[in-house]
Amino acid sequence: MHLEKGSTYCFLGSSGVGKSSLINKLLGRTAIRTGDISAYSGRGKHVTTSRQMYFLEGGAMLIDNPGMRELGMTDADTGIEAAFDEISSLAKECKYSDCAHVNEPGCAVLSAMKSGHLDAGKYENYLSLKKEAAFYEMTESERRKRDRQFGKFFKKSKKDLKRLGHKNY
Questions:
Q1: Phi-psi region of 165 (alpha: psi -120 to 50; beta: other; left: phi over 0)
Q2: How many domains does the chain have?
Q3: What is the domain range of residue 49?
Q4: Residues 6+ apart with CB under 8 A from 31
Q5: Most CB within 10 Å of its CB: which of 74, 105, 112, 151?
């Protein structure tokens, strides 16, 4: 990893994933208190409670942040289209202008992926980010409605499984 002199790097992520441990390694000393791995969950423990800046000998600056429960995306569609410009270009050739690139006939993106001209991993990352962006664009009431619908589906499925003789449900 190359960290440039005069540049600032900000570490973000969930609690207990190792942000502070990584900064300690980059500093070459234990400047930040870290917790042990939890025997119960097998995960790191939340220790950092405030934002702090650290300076590397080479002149780079590192910012350690407390863990976050959830990171959202703003203006995601523009960013996704820019990051996946190859897919964006292919999408212009799709049969339908509102193609989701999942199972539509005449989808140029799917065709390129199936023929090997588009990397399958890149395609999967694209779909994953589009799905996440759509989730963050939902209003709170839309999320609650979706969660209620899923709850009803789950309850009905359990009932159907019991009716069919599956005892573990």
A1: left
A2: 2
A3: 8-64
A4: 23, 24, 54
A5: 112
